[in-house]
Amino acid sequence: MRKFVIVDLETTGHTPFKGERIIEIGIVVVKDRQIVKEFSSLVNPGKELSPFISNLTGITNEDLIDAPTFPAIAEEIFSMMTEGYIVAHNIPFDLGFLNYELQNCGYKALNQPVLDTVELARIFMPLAPGYKLGQLAEWLAFDHGNPHRALSDAYVTAKLLLTLMDKIDSLPYETIYTLNDLQGRLKSDLHQILDKRMELLSFEPLQRNDLEIHRGIALKKKEWNEAEDDTVLTSFGEMIDNIFEEGGMLHHCMPNYEKRDGQKEMSEFIFDAFQQKRHALIEAETGTGKSLAYLIPAIYDAVRNKSRVVISTHLTQLQTQLYEKEIPLLKQVLSFPFKSIVMKGKSHYLSLKRFEKELQMDTQDNYDITLTKAILLIWLTETMTGDVDEIQLPSSGKHFFYRISTDTEGPTDPMSPWFSRSFYQRIRSRAQKAHIIITNHSLLCADIVADYQLLPSYQRVIIDEAHHLESTASKHFGLKLDYVNIQFLLNNIGTNQEGEWLYRISETYFADKQLLYREKWAKLWQETKADTDELFRYLFSYVSEQQKKDINVNDIGRYQYRFDPPKEDERKWSVIQEMVTRLTFNLRDLIHLLFLLKESVANGDDKQREDKLEEIQANIDQLQRVIDDLEIFFLVENQNQVKWIEIEAFGAKNAVYLYCEPIEISSILREHLFSVKDSVVLTSATLTMNQSFAFIKQRLGLTEDTALESKFPSPYLYDQQVQLMVPNDFPKLSFGNQQDYIDATCEAIISLAEVTEGRMLVLFTSYEMLKKSYELLREMITQDEFIVIGQGVSSGSRSRLKKNFQSYDRAILLGTSSFWEGVDIPGSDLSCLVIVRLPFQPPDHPIYEAKANHFKDKGLNPFMELSLPNAVIRFKQGFGRLIRSSSDRGIVLVCDDRMVKARYGKYFTQSIPKVPITYNSTQKLIEKVKEWL
To answer: Broadest EC class (predicted)?
Structure first.
């Protein structure tokens, strides 16, 4: 009989030794997998609750006045907790608080075995969307009627524990056995539970037809339902009439379907482009339904011609949406079968060969690596793809995953015992048979750079979010190098320390020369690390010393310095070049020693010889890439490239990042993409400026006669759904008086928020301005008025910040950079959008500066040819955040009156849907908002 005591606490804060106290305790006791006892009590903490805690828990100061203090209930709690496992959702928090309070009352600290259901859920439920208790309850369809109340949370934790125990019972012996080897470094005391399970399995092996055991690792069996190819199709026109018309297939399959004329017209337009083997530019405004509009002709064309069409997106979020939402819908809608697949770069896929080796190695892993190995073990019994994006790994686990990804495998070896089960080979094989390959701009561009060796061959491609193609292609035809990655590579190779890679590879070679080889390697390795450190520290100080006018601060707080060797300080630059030359010589010497090791291994009779040779060559290739990159950055001149250095102003003195990109990508795309593919369709909600495609065509290298063009307007009634307002009384923003502008912005935000009850997204062009505004807003308003959430200030990813924003009734979300697009907050969650400044790139941004000089040299105006079009497209992206459905209504406040007063302002107003624009004092605008809302 096994007893589990599940506990949950509500507290005034996070740290008991800083005076925070328990305000509620809930306990549930489970025996023989049945809930047999419960306990619940409010606890008087002897201090006031903050509005945040009251809002979170629903517990008020009045509720606690007559509640018992902890000493009054300590004996009852201690007696319930002293036998069996202690279980909590985040055990260090609950047990830490409980032991602190019990010891204060004279009791011993509880020290029996513990189980942490956060940790266990991460391991045994790797496909869960999140690991907060509420997220797991929703995913597992548990009734969680009173979240953030102790007894309700304890009950849900008990149900979660029982589900986790069932999951352990469903795993095969091999998985449990390997997990048992790892469990000693986890928070949860799993040893007895896993031992008992193995004992039972040794008598009665698990029968699971969906799994196979290969070399001691349990895997989900490969089961793909391939569609047949012999399909007879109706005409395209007849098919889309049947799909899009009222009462058509979409109407039947989508409960809230609304016919959109632009959607059908866009499908026809793309089909015509395919038939004519022409490229096409399509701007499909918000609400057009462009995903279905381009998928339908793509699928039809691919099935009819027994070929494939590639769909490329910028955001993985859209990739996932296409594959998990739109494709399943079209499988219902279309009268013929088709095959589709998501394809990503090799670093996304687990290498089973590498993972097996890591499990066999006797290493003292840190907690994150151990947890990652445990997660991957269970995930392998569930995944069909081996794609890391399916799961959430701890931070160090992400680096570990890259180390065991297919990207590190080296050349493909069909004789490998894992080849037939390789996730990447499986994906490649399926992609060869697929009609639709959904990928991202990054892999698409990597494929172009690799001369089309990564994706299966194709002649038609649809590029969604096409306004990002130029920047993504530039990155792929450029370079990136930084201190951390060079040191990471050197550390991975290691020295003669037992347990390190070099020691493991070389321990049986060189016989009497082994010691000499290792000593030589260790000396050279240390010198190389020191030279790397010295070079990057010198680069840091070199950038720091530049005049302020030469340095741009980007939106993640890094200083950027564009360098051009002929214009640099000759004396200091020659020091950098000497350092680089010395470092490359040392790297070449390391490569030479690895070649000697490779020869020795090749002549040996080691059973793992081929694996070792592959690993040695992979390290040689990586070191050679570092040499090549350093030479391009510092020793080779190229007038067609822009090179710059980024440093973290308050980071380590070697936190330096090197970047290099072509100044213009248009000729490269023209030669390597548009001239070799039959039809490239570029689509986005934001491709035009002032109703013209001229800018995007010029930037991407499309000539006037090669591309069809069309613009499909939004079905939304913007003139009735949106009011655009520009204040005329903001202070001028010039160097030295930024604070006045921030003050005016924050006052306007608060005044507007009081009318709209929060529900406001504020978009900045500068992270520095966002941070100052966040701090000022926090001073000006209390938490019980509005919750202020700031990107880069509040913790969490973009999607986490968005969820937090939506979970509060009265919230203000401050965003920069990525928040200008791809953030979808429909309905009443967002009713006000504030654009603080028109999104012009800083004139000292390295890429902009180089491109501007390039335009000047050609006798063109950089502002009109580059700066203004980029700002307009960015502005359109930001403007599109507000209206996401036909029922949305809202205010757009643009604090920058250049939109009205500057001669170029019309390019902004004429590039968005027609909306009423009011230019008046802030006070008058607020009054108008009150009336309108």
So the answer is: hydrolase
Whether 383 has a binding-site annotation, put simply, is no
Binding residue per annotation — 57?
A: no
Q: Flag whether 779 is marked binding.
A: no
923 dihedral zone (left: phi>0; alpha: psi -120 to 50; beta) = alpha
**287 a known binding residue?**
yes
The helix (run of H) or strand (run of E) holding residue 923 is helix 922-932
Nearest in space to 769 (alpha carbons), one of 837, 841, 821, 705: 837
Res 650 pLDDT > 80: no
Q: Are 412 and 425 in contact (CB under 8 A)?
A: yes
Count Cβ neighbours within 10 Å for each residue of 286-304 and write b for 16 or more, e otherwise: bbbbbbbbbbbbbbbbbbe
Is 245 flagged in the annotation as binding? Answer: no
CA 170, 174, 177, 178 dihedral sign is negative
* DSSP labels, 669-683: HIIIIITT-SEEEEE
Widest pairwise Cα distance in the chain: 90
- Residue 306 near residue 297 (C-beta atoms within 8 A): no
The token pair that represents 105 in the structure block:
């009352």
Residue 827 has pLDDT above 70, yes or no: no
Q: Smallest Cα–Cα separation from 437: which of 412, 420, 465, 462?
A: 462
Neighbours of 702 (CB within 10 A): 23
Cβ atoms of 895 and 748 closer than 8 Å = yes
- Strand, helix or coil for residue 725: strand
pLDDT digits 0-9 by tens, 103-155: 999 999 998 999 999 999 999 999 998 899 989 999 999 988 788 888 999 99
Cite the beta strand spans of 829-933 per DSSP E: 832-835, 890-894, 917-920
**What whole-number distance in Å separates Cα of residue 616 and Cα of residue 850?**
40
Alpha helices in 658-756, H assignment, sequence order = 666-669, 694-700, 718-721, 738-756
Q: Are 896 and 837 in contact (CB under 8 A)?
A: yes
> Which has the closest alpha carbon to 463: 440, 443, 434, 447?
440
Which backbone phi and psi does 918 adopt, to 5 degrees? -115, 125
H helices of 495-561, in order, are 501-506, 514-545
Q: What is the pLDDT of residue 105?
A: 92
The pLDDT score that the predictor gives to residue 152 is: 92
**Could you tell me the two tokens for 817?**
């950079």
- Per DSSP, the three-state class of 770 is helix
Is 67 flagged in the annotation as binding?
Answer: no
The Cα 48–Cα 25 span in angstroms is 18
Q: Which domains does the chain have, with CATH numbers?
A: 3-169 (3.30.420.10), 516-662 (no CATH), 718-932 (3.40.50.300)
CA 156 and chain centroid, separation: 29
- Give the DSSP H or E segment for 211: strand 211-214
Percent helix, strand, coil in the chain (nearest 5)? 50, 15, 35
Q: Which residue has the higher pLDDT, 412 or 387?
A: 387
CB hemisphere CA count around 474 (13 angstroms): 22
Q: Which residue spans within 407-557 are E strands per DSSP?
A: 436-440, 460-463, 479-482, 551-553
Contact call for residues 254 and 329 (beta carbons, < 8 A): yes
pLDDT at 501: 79
Measure the CA–CA gap between 587 and 521, rounded to whole angstroms.
11
> Is residue 288 marked as binding?
yes
Query: 478 a known binding residue?
Result: no
Question: What distance in Å separates the CA atoms of residue 629 and residue 264, rounded to the nearest whole number?
Answer: 48
Q: Are 174 and 212 in contact (CB under 8 A)?
A: no
In the numeric block, which tokens belong to residue 471? 């920047």
Strand order in the sheet with 460-463: 340-342, 436-440, 309-313, 460-463, 679-684, 279-284, 707-712
Q: What are phi and psi of 555, to 5 degrees?
A: -80, 5
In contact, 814 and 823? CB cutoff 8 Å = no
For residue 714, the tally of other CB atoms under 10 A from its CB is 19
Instruction: Return d(Cα 32, Cα 651) in angstroms, integer.
Output: 53
Q: Are 642 and 468 in contact (CB under 8 A)?
A: no
